[in-house]
Amino acid sequence: MSEASGRDVVAPSIDDPWVRAGNEVVGGPLGQHAAPGRSWWTPLRVMLVLVTLTFGLGMVQKAPCMLGQASYDRLCYSDIDKLYASRGFAEGQVPFLDDSGRYPYFEYPVLTGGLVYGATLVTHSIFGAPMVADLPADEVFADPQVASNVLPFSTVNAVLLFALAVVAVWALAMAHRRRPWDAALVAASPALLLAGLINWDLLAVALVALALAAWSRERALLAGVLIGLGTAAKLYPLFLLGPLLVLCMRTRRWGAFALAVLGAAGGWLVVNLPVMAANFEGWKSFWSFNSDRGADLGSLWYAWSLGGHDVGSHTINIVSWVFFGGCCLAVAAIGLLAPRRPRLPQLALLVVLAFLLVNKVYSPQYVLWLLPLAALARPRWRDLLVWQACEAVYFVAIWVYLEGDLDSATTDGAPTAYIAAILIRVAGEVWFGSLVVRDIFVPWRDPVRADGLTDDPAGGVFDGSSVRTR
Predict the structure, then answer these.
(1) pLDDT, tens digit, 9 for 90 and up, residues 362-377
(2) What are phi and psi of 448, to 5 degrees?
(3) Alpha helices (H) along 16-92
(4) Which structural domain range is residue 2 located in?
(5) Does residue 469 lie within any of the structural domains?
(6) Which of 324, 353, 398, 407 would you label with 366, given CA atoms 20 to 30 Å apart?
(7) Same domain? 181 vs 203
């Protein structure tokens, strides 16, 4: 996968009104006689600098909690240091395989567990493994060696997550061959800065970005394998198969879809089957945990429960999946009935967005799921920053709420400020999604297709295929 030639690259200083307006301060947009390809600062190198700066600032933002000064009002919470002792990693236990009951099973998919265990091995090989097998499990976190390993463990994970962020940005630059600068919307994203180190979601994000890049190069089987691996890290990459099905129906590219499904099944099974065979109870802990949990932080279900409406987890499971199924049918209808075939990132964004809107939990790092899809679906700085501003409101509110500082802002016992933050986040997502739907039905409003010549740079076999017919 190579970069497009300098002449072919769409310059954001010309293409994006916000970038063009800001660029006037430093001399205006790229001129038509500028010599392409002569600068050392290629788009990919600029992306590397941007993502390094963004992630570095994210590490600074998380530093108080990584240094043990943990409190929600510092806005630096991360699951990484919390789960080191509480899930047996400090003791060196392999996730999903220990059935002694000493620790709860690691409540994440298998590939994520493998990443965390790998970080554990690196940490212990350099800084030593704590000898805590004789301690009660609830006292492990207080062991001096465990406490001293928390910062190195967090740092090793941060380095791995940074590498995954670099991979994601590189892949996005490759997915839109003439628009590599769109990856800057991820590389310099406020959402990446705030949420990149909360959890291990960047593993799935990187695999999704790689899948999009592979599909854009018409490597359907590889794209499927990457989707399967992504699903082995988080559930949501599986949903990309829905947009692929709709667009393959519209273009009759059934062979490409079959290869993608085959690859996805193979990639998922290769990772999961060994763990299923070794300890099925440990393997299914992720599925049991998510099935049994009730309305949880950040979701509309949780806002509803804070208003005094108690709904059981079983009911939420059924209703949320019905809602999600209905949303998927609506996205399929959009994909099949739009006057011009939608672009793959547009439909993918709508499906993942629908899942997050009806899901029973919205952790702050879930914004990362949408970020690369949003950057490809509607590459406009203004729109992404408005949406992420809504996400930032929620990011601040959840930690202040968990600290208890919003308890006084109540109406009939409900924390109205926190509920309002949830609704602001949802409104931002719905607003951004509505822009994408409008772009689908009014293609000349789509930033990628506005030139009247470009079809779907990330579409692979779809690109240029019956672009104006149903």
Answers:
(1) 999 999 999 999 999 9
(2) -75, -35
(3) 17-23, 43-66, 79-86
(4) 1-39
(5) no
(6) 407
(7) yes
In angstroms, the Cα distances linking 67 to 77, 149, 162, 226 are: 11, 11, 19, 35
CA separation for the pair 282, 97 (Å, rounded): 6
Residue at 93 is within a domain: yes
* Amino acid at position 199, single letter: N
Q: Are 328 and 361 members of one domain?
A: yes
Both tokens assigned to 429:
């997502």
Query: Are 11 and 113 contained in the same domain?
Result: no
In the three-class reduction of DSSP (H, G, I as helix; E, B as strand; rest coil), residue 414 is classed as strand
Q: Are residues 21 and 129 in the same domain?
A: no
Give per-residue burial for 65-78: e unless 16+ CB within 10 Å, then b: bbeeeeebeebbbb
Number of domains, the chain:
2
Segment (H or E) for 411: strand 410-411
Give the dihedral of Cα atoms 127, 133, 139, 142; nearest 10 deg: -20
The secondary element (H helix, E strand) that includes residue 340 is none
One domain, residues 323 and 435:
yes
- DSSP alpha helix (H) spans, 279-365: 280-283, 285-292, 300-306, 313-337, 344-358
- Cα 83 to Cα 105: distance, rounded to the nearest angstrom: 11
Helix 144-175 × helix 367-377 angle, to 10°: 20
Tokens of 349: 């964004």
Per-position DSSP letters for 176-217, written without gaps between them: STT-GGGGHHHHT-HHHHHHTTTSSTHHHHHHHHHHHHHHHT
**pTM more than 0.85:** yes
Could you say which DSSP state residue 30 is in?
P
Q: Would you state the structure tokens that stand for residue 351, as one six-digit string?
A: 């499906």
Whether 25 and 115 map to the same domain: the answer is: no
- Count how many residues are written for the chain: 470
Asked if residue 343 belongs to a domain, the reply is yes
179-216 pLDDT, tens digit per residue, is 899 999 999 999 999 999 999 999 999 999 999 999 99
For residue 178, give both structure tokens. Answer: 């003439």
Listed in sequence order, the residues at least 6 apart from 163 whose beta carbon sits closer than 8 Å to its beta carbon are none
pLDDT tens for 304-322 read 999 888 889 999 999 999 9
In sign, the C-alpha dihedral spanning 253, 259, 262, 263 is negative
CA distance 415 to 425: 16
Statement to judge: residues 308 and 289 lie in one domain: yes
Residue type, position 88, single letter: G
- Spatial CB neighbours of 165, under 8 Å, sequence gap ≥ 6: 51, 55, 192, 196, 202, 205, 206
